[in-house]
Amino acid sequence: MQVCFFYFTFRSTLPFPGSQEQYEVFIKDLVCNLFGEGNDVFKEGEWTKSIEMYTEALSIADYADSEDICIPTGLLEKLYANRAAAYLSIGLYDQALEDCEKALQLNEGNHKALYRKAKALKEMGRHQEAYEAVAKCSLAVPRVRMHFCSLSTLKLREEASDYLQSHGNTPLSHHADSPARLDSPWPGVLDYTLHTEDHKCKKDVLLGRMKHSPDKMWKLIRPRPTKTQYVGPYYVCKEVAVGKECLYPGHCTFAYCQEEIDVWTLERKGFISRELLFDPFGPNSNIRLTVPKILQEHRGIFMFLCGVCFDHKPRIISKTNKDDPSLCSHPVTKHNFEDHKCLVHILKENTVRYSKIRPLSPHSQLDLCRHEVRYGCVREDDCFYAHSLIELKVWMMQHELGITHESIVQEAKKYWNATASLQGVQVKTMPAFGPPNLKMMFVCGQCWRNGQLSEADKNKKYCTAKARHTWAKDRRVVLVSSHERKKWTTVRPLPTKKPIPSQFEICMHVTASKKCQYIGNCTFAHSVEERDLWTYMKEHNIPDMDQLYEQWLLSQKPGWGEEMSSNSVRENGKQIHMPTDYAEEVAGNHCWLCGKNCNSEKQWQQHITSEKHKERVFNSEDDQNCWQYRFPTGTFKVCERFLKGTCTEDDLCKLAHGEHELKEWKERREFLLMKLAKARKDHLIAPNDNDFGKYSFLLKDIK
User: Which InterPro entries does UniProt cross-reference here (predicted)?
Assistant: First the structure.
């Protein structure tokens, strides 16, 4: 009756029986009623009828706009998004996509519209665009956590989002008298807030949100997963990305939002520490740092190096001279070591990283220098802020305990001596190599394809077959045989492209006794034996078949356990080098960017002119978190055709697509110039080298 009456009213010449304000309220209520009726019939499966209701509501909204009657934008975007869902249900994907675009024009963060857009694009065969829409959806889905009585009861609820929005988008802020905030080392990217409460909760909650983003909602940042050897970039959980519940709540090693990815990446690099976000010396502080505690977390060793050589450009690593311990080991200068020594934390993994620990002074600030983290601090030792997380923690320990640098070195030696003694006891009880239910052997891959089992000869140069194929890592395969099947089965390399899951599953095609249909390297196991060996490799930190082969060879020798473990210690799944691994005398140039030591001038010049090093000067894994748009092309102008909507070159266009992209390009250029200036100052770039590939535009005089 309301619909008919309304149409009669505005289509006839009769005036509305009421005031203008009543007329506006009437029209808004009518749009809401049609929206509600459309939702009701949609739930009953009458999708065509729901489309009619939504369309009628949108038509009335258009009329209202012509009469200067404002229909809420939130209601309009819901109408378009819901009509898109109805179109999807009856297979009208073009119309669904069009409605999704209209909803997103009103609110680009509408996660339901993004999801339905991705669904429509997928059905239309536009898979790349669908993937991009899903990626945006994964960042837009509101994942707000309610804190009830303890963190173990955190639940993801849609009602929580409505509740928090109605309270000003500040979850948990009513519990904190003075929430602490630490600006991100990446300015303009993230901000963080840690909220504590006065009840019996055992842990604090870290929340994060993007700075300058229309979405002001805080997202929960869970603790970073550390029980995995994965070192690549983090990804959003695939279930969460499409709006579903995670299949492994509480154990998922994937991120739930982009904010979580950014914070985890910064934490892994040591740029932030959630334990230090609050004032560490406040009345409720429970941080008690010691040398063993720092080394347990960061590994490595503390020792003294020659400070003059360390501050040289380029950096030179000099320890004490073997013949005269009062001098440094530099072959020419031989500085007085005791007068110029400096404390350094050394971490030796694939490369060597040296972190100088400057003396704590009354002016020292217990916070990280944001310039050093991004492109290098120009003040160097004159800066009052810590230049690494390890330096910050040492300063905090000194502030609390008053410990000297000499005592830190002595405590570090005691810690490693105790660790080595403990490891010596553990070596004697090492188990046999490989899964207990499997036999293992390495054979020639070429012979295996011909149905032969040919192992390596004594010299490990050829296989034992008459053909004597070369025994190389790319030509051997690993075979395993279980006690149950007693049949040799090949095992593929451990999947490395994606984060290693908490447990491996068998491919569903193989389970159904079919051939795997996956194009590429299937990350699911193709046999029970393969699953068991992959699990063994993951649990024993064996990342690839080469290391598996080396350890298998050692296991064939008497006393292999002692030999394998005498070189290093493993703690929390990571290799820890002992102080003896750092004892060799080094006196050469060190590239702090690449972690490489060079023992001659020729080797140094080869390194700093290499393409890999130049790329490292300008780019690092963390820089990808800073930028939203394309890499600058060198032409800093806005594309006029893009503004008119006629640019067809997309990402190949040399001009900026909008003022926002142009602004970021200019900021990125300044950022890269700072990195280049720092590299030149530290002599990490050859004086006459101006060939930087895609970065050469930095040298042009661009206005």
Answer: TPR-like_helical_dom_sf, TPR_rpt, ZC3H7A/B, Znf_C2H2_jaz, Znf_C2H2_sf, Znf_CCCH, Znf_CCCH_sf
